[in-house]
Amino acid sequence: MFSWTGRADLVDMRRIRRFAALGLASAAVLLLLVVWDGRLLGPLAYPKSGSVEKTSGFDPGKGHLVSSGIVFLAPLDDPCPRDLVSGSPLEIIGAEAVKGRFGNARFFDGLKSCFADSRFLWSNISNSFSISMWVAVSNNLHNQDIVFAYGGRQQVGVALQEGMMTFHVPLRQKEPAIAAYDFRKYGEFVHLTCSADFESGFARVFENGALAAEVRIDGTPDMPPLPVSIGKRTPFMIRAPFAGAIDDV
Fold this sequence. Notes:
Elements: H1 8-21, E1 29-37, E2 42-43, H2 64-67, E3 70-75, E4 91-93, E5 96-99, E6 104-109, E7 115-121, E8 129-137, E9 144-151, E10 154-161, E11 164-169, E12 177-182, E13 189-197, E14 202-207, E15 210-216, E16 227-230, E17 243-247
């Protein structure tokens, strides 16, 4: 999700080195959320002004994860996954542990009874951010809320919509910006990185390190007070369940 395709591999390698230094290189990760500074093309510590707000009981705390800009990180190799940043448990309903690209993955069967919930709210993010994950999408559903939240005009995250892989960025007093591309790699693990860089004014999606989609974003983010979930757009609504597997970052 950086506008410069040629530097995507550099970004990934920087992150790999940073995560390896944190002892995370072998962890199977459900989802990674990073608050970052686009000028340096990588995760950073929170600025003094605070790019993550302490709302709804969320406390980013201190330590090596937070200093790297990571605000949400949930390993899947554990039988009872939890967010390593806050320590909060992850509620996984109906998703089976299966062999993934790296260690274990979680398989979601595309039914409304299969989803995952966290306690991390999108509204804790108030600045530029990135979402990164390995994901294998089944082709039996054209609409899937992968990691997506819907609050009316406040739409954020990654979803498959009519066969298009979409990244939604909510904007204050505006319709959400949507970067989208025709998704074709069904049934295989692909690495998706979605980034909203409000400094450069672009939201971008990379698939396996190559720029797949971009869109201009003009304004300020307007995140919904909804939890980060898989296959579930609100705490009470499952309209487009996820069919596939999510694995390591």
